[in-house]
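Minutes, methods subgroup
Present: GH (chair), OT, SY

1. OT presented the first of two proteins processed in the latest run. Sequence and structure tokens recorded below as shown on screen.
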Amino acid sequence: MEIARAIVLGASAIGAGLAMIAGIGPGIGQGYAAGRAAESVGRQPEASSDITRTMLLGCAVAESTGIYGLVVALILLFVNPLINML
């Protein structure tokens, strides 16, 4: 039984690490979106409010993906519902 518990805890730690990799995608996407928005504002300064609004909405959606990964990692590390199944 103790070996099964160690395997579950180890697999949970690996799963938490993999879930945190989800933070890389939103970071890259937000940086790309901000760069393209700055380029668009440079080309069309009169549309800066629309461009900024659209960029912020897209960044908020992308950031939620990273937050979901963080929540999954925290659940696997601290709550660990799989331990109760042993």
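2. SY then presented the second protein from the same run.
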Amino acid sequence: MADKPRYRAWFQSLSDPNEHYALDEIVYRSRTGDLLEVVHDLRELGKTSSEEWKRRFKERQHVTAWPFGSGVWGKKEWVLPGIRDENIVSMFEGNTNLFWAERYGTELGLRDLWIKQCGNSHTGSFKDLGMTVLVSQVKEMIAKGREIPAIACASTGDTSAALAAYAAAAGIPAVVFLPRGKVSVAQLIQPVANGAIVFALDTDFDGCMEIVQQLAERDEIYLANSMNSLRIEGQKTIGIEIIEQFDWNVPDWFVIPGGNLGNVSALAKGLDMLVDLGLVDRRPRIACAQAEAANPLYLSYQRGFEVFEPIAARPTLASAIQIGNPVSVDKAIDALRRYDGVVEQASEAELAEACARADRTGLFNCPHTGVALAAMEKLVRRGLIRENDRVVVISTAHGLKFVDFKVKYHETQLEAIESRLPNPPIELAARYQTVRDEMLRQIDKRFSK
């Protein structure tokens, strides 16, 4: 009788493969200050054939058998193989839809454009994918007797929402630090409603991040930001899931917005596993999109990644990526080099108009997705993305979390932006003839050729 596979994973230094730690150790950086990564025993995983992995993943999609109906935990062996099922904290995240943006793509000259709707998740963003893993590991550690007083994060909105929800489900205290006045009301109310301890600080994200790192170091508060490699393990399933949705055919391009840059390295990490374990035989290209107001990676890319310098990020409509000193920059640069990557930026006007154009074709985009769409449009105009390329833009959050941005755009109230496609409600007296005449005029104006 064959031995049961012994899948294993551990923390490992990026610079020294001999420095490693168990996943239940509280450690975020190596002895030299580098970030860690979760490393899997690929030799053991490779004993299962690529076709068997494909079959196993397919059988688990949308099932109710705990916890495999989750898009993350359906790939448990590739994420946290050693965790006990009863300690997994899941909202059956993942398995989000691919939107075939046929009309929008046609307008841009693309035949095969898709939007991965990661915002169609429990808290409305892709951050759920990483938080289910991190909170589950903390619950496992507590079950084994480890004293962890709380889990904490600095956030520009989406991370705090995900942490608060998953910690509430697990019964673990959550503490979130937000830059005061710099997140939407919808983002702020999520951790409030889920019972987290919420601090609104007079600083930006980088200032919040500095404080939460001190708390983690001095007060044994467990850190939930993406410098914690457990987050990356959940987020890496995005690329795996997309390729699975395409029947294991690899797109030509992934376009993803980047702020703290954990998502870029996570995307590449999942794709690496597909290649290393033989499920696919080629790599896509990755384009990272940054807001012009918070573009340190773009500036580094312009100099061939020879040097990276943090900046003071300026206010941007894409508030979740208003980050001037991203903690995962080294991982992101390494990922972009492996995937023949590019970095493009979008101005405030460009991201707002890209959102509006795409929304007119049936989408409902957050401003961060607008950054990715605007960058993608630029790459198309330059001819780098070609007409017949299959392109997947990763939409990181649901547009309903940013209705204030949408309302101001259509009321032409966005500062320093002249809305080109505003569509405010038409206010009229309640008289049939008046309404009919205006309706017919609007139909003729908007849809006649």
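Chair's summary of item 2: The mean pLDDT is 95.
Next meeting: continue with the remaining queue.
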